[in-house]
Amino acid sequence: MFRRKLSALDYHNPAGFNCRDETEFRNFIVWLEDQKIRHYKIEDRGNLRNIHSDDWPKSFEKYMKDVNCPFKIQERQETVDWLLGLAVRLEYGDNADKYKDSNPDGARNADNTAKNAEPLINLDVNNPDFKAGVMALANLLQIQRHDDYLVMLKAIRILVQERLTQDAIAKANQSKEGLPVALEKHILGFDTGDAVLNEAAQILRLLHIEELRELQTKINEAIVAVQAIIADPKTDHRLGKVGR
């Protein structure tokens, strides 16, 4: 997950880094601050370097606040990714002259053409602010997290289009008229021993039956459509033969 960024930062073990290993994680944070981020003065890094201290999590939590990391200490993968993004950005800032002419002219022109053709490609998916924004939206909309932030962004777009547009909201607010149902006339088939639970089970069963009816209706419509095509050979002679 972090291999490319770790390689770009010349980390000693980019392929084998395991952020879930507590000792390795703490050593990594110390290396990142000492070698790349350098937010603290050298004399102020003592608490962060004391990785065997019981108070190290508190020191790390303070460090996250000091560098304005938007994630919580429990969100380790997101935190590591954000800190790596910050380190890469700082590394580039320190060596801008080294990297600015690294792409050939042809590759640069092709990249510009692709960016003009696809607006979303202009997004810097490694930008910490972009990731923080996507994560905040995902949390707000209760969308499952994914390692690829673009995938989460697409999921957010789909959810907004399907549920949060004016047409979708208006449709959701429309009241559906229906006939009143007498639950006592519908036999449940079993007894939970609790009248409230029995009533809830009856409601769930009726809702399930309604869903099955809607599904059956769609199946019937599909069958009718297929039969209409097969019954009329004029539609396409490749569908079958008429007669023997």
TrEMBL record:
InterPro entries: RTRAF. It holds the Pfam family RLL. Belongs to the RTRAF family. It comes from Crypturellus soui. This is RNA transcription, translation and transport factor protein.
